[in-house]
Amino acid sequence: MAQVELSNISKRFGAVEVISGLNLSIEDGAFCALLGPSGCGKSTMLRMIAGLEEVTDGTIRIGTEDVTHAAPKSRGTAMVFQSYALYPHLTVAENITFSMSLAGAPKAKQREAAERVAKMLQLTHLLDRRPAALSGGQRQRVAIGRALVRDPKVFLFDEPLSNLDALLRVQMRLELAKLHGDLKTTMIYVTHDQVEAMTLADLIVVLDKGKIAQAGSPWELYNRPANRFVAGFIGSPAMNFLKGQGDGQGVVLPDGTRLAVAQHMAKGAPVELGIRPEHVKVATEGPIRGRASVVEYLGNTSYAYVETDHGPMVVEADDQPVKAGDQLALVPDLAKAHVFDATGQAL
Ligand SMILES: Nc1ncnc2c1ncn2[C@@H]1O[C@H](COP(=O)(O)OP(=O)(O)OP(=O)(O)O)[C@@H](O)[C@H]1O
Ligand SMILES: [Mg+2]
Predict the structure, then answer these.
(1) Nearest bound ligand to CA 39?
(2) pLDDT tens digits, 98-139
(3) Domains in the chain and their CATH numbers?
(4) Which of 81, 106, 298, 333 is positioned for an S-S bond with 279, CB 3.0–4.6 A?
C-alpha cells in the first residue's frame, strides 16, 4: 500500500504536449479514477506511473520513494490492460504466476499463490484450463489475478472492463469494489465511463486535454462541478445549458425570461445556466416551453427530449405521461441550477 504523488508532470511526444503540468496526490488506499474523453491522456498518465513511458518533466513518488526514473519492475505497481494479454499456451494457473516463474519461484509456491488468488476471484475450478476455453469475464479475472499475485503497492487498471458486455461489466464492477474493500490497496483506474468512475472511486480526476479539469469525490463532481466541462461530462443524460445574461441574482434568457438563482452575476455578463434533466419538472405552466420530440421510456423513469425556444433540452418525466408531440412547460429547480461564466468557470 502506498500513496502516489504526481508533481508537475508533463509529457510531450515530439512537439505535441499531451499532459501539461499535472499535480495530483492520491492517498494511500484510495480508489482513484482517471476519467475523460478519448485522447485526453489517461493511458499516458497510467503508463508513466507504471514506468512504461518516460515523463518529459516532473516527479512521481510512490510511498516514500521517488520512482520518476525507476524501472517498471522496481516500482511496486501491477497493471491490468484492456486487452487481457494472456498467454494462450499457458493454463490459468500458469498465466497467474507467470511473473513468479520468471523470477524462478519453486513450483509448489507458484501453485499455492495461484490457488490463493483464484479463490479471491472465483477461478479455482478453472485453474487448469487454457484462456481459449474461458469467457471474456473469466479472462479478465485471470488478468486481474496476474496483477494480484504480485502483491503490488499500487494497482493500475486501464479500462479493464470495456471489452465485456453490459451485464458482465456491472458484475465485474461489483467484484472490483469488493476486491478493493478487502485489499485496501491503492488503485488507479482509467475509464471513459462515468458510471464506473462514480460507482468505484473515492477520488475522480477528470482530465480534459491533458489537464485536470477537476479532482474530487463523486458527490463533489455531480453537485459542485467546477466548470462547464465537468458539468457536461458527469451525469447521464448530460446537463442542459441555456445561454443568457446575468442580472444580479438572475439569468435573463434571450426572450426576456428571468430565472432567479443563488449565484451572483454582474448585469449583462454573458453566462450559461446549467440544469440537470432530473432537476426539471414537466408541468402545465412554467417559464420554459417546448415540444417533446422523442420520449425514451426506461421502465423506472423516462426522458423527454424537448425542443424549446432556448434550444434542445432533456428532462426526466417520471411522474408525467409524456408522448412525442406534446407541448410541455418546464420548471427548472433553480436551487439546483449551476451558472457558468464566459470562460466556463462555475460561479
Ligand atoms: N507514442 C505516441 N506518440 C505520439 N502521440 C501519442 C503517443 N501515445 C499517445 N499519443 C497521443 O497522446 C494523446 C493521449 O493519448 P492516450 O492514449 O493517453 O489517451 P486516452 O485518454 O487513454 O484515450 P482513450 O480513451 O482513447 O484510450 C492522444 O492524442 C494520442 O494520440
Ligand atoms: Mg487509453
Answers:
(1) 1
(2) 999 998 999 999 999 999 999 888 899 999 999 999 988 889
(3) 4-233 (3.40.50.300), 240-340 (2.40.50.140)
(4) 333
